[in-house]
Fold this sequence. Notes:
- By secondary structure, the chain is mainly α.
- It has 2 domains: about 5-105, no CATH class; about 115-210, Serine Threonine Protein Phosphatase 5, Tetratricopeptide repeat, CATH 1.25.40.
- It contains 11 helices and no strands.
- α9 runs antiparallel to α10 and α10 runs antiparallel to α11.
- It is elongated and about 85 Å long.
- The chain starts with 7 loop residues before the first helix and ends with a helix.
Amino acid sequence: MEDYFEHIDDYMEGKLSSDQHALFKKEIVKNSSLKEAVSNYHDAKKLSEGFLEADIMETLSSIEFQEKEPSAKTKTPSQFKWLKILGMLLVLFLIGLKIGKNIKSKTNKEEILASYIKPLDYSATRSLDTIGMNAFEKGKYFFALNKFQESEEWLTIYLSNEKNEKALSRGFYWLGSAHLEQWEVSEAKEAWSKSDEENANKNLNILNNPKG
């Protein structure tokens, strides 16, 4: 079975022999393009049937002319022709679907990062180094410098040693923001769910009810 795409119809309609069917299933596992073509078979077939109907109507309308010109050859749609159209439709469909998902995902991400409420500390960048800072101050310092991974690390250390509930609430608010800036959404949600800060609750609502 050299060209698996030519046998998609037979596979979907159960017309392959047991050996051919087994080979086809193995190819689906390792061939992502074939897998996507099989997954979208029914949608693509509906589209191709629409083109087929249009072609039939065109053929019928030309019968009278062909009868007057016996030497003219009547064009009949071959299986290869429609499989080729089917493949093209599948490619176009999958490309459009992928682009649409990517655009929506990117748009949602940018909207969330632009709309969530960031913690602010205007004194966080006044020091030129971290000497004398505690773990929480270092977390804020690196956050202000857009070094979110370092901020996350120091805030995690701070929270592992802190006992005061108000301080913990504030620390988890900052930690959630450091996670979100790295687009670690589930971690951001978890951190903000442990904070009593009003803005942490607002940010959770933004993540749980994104636009689009």
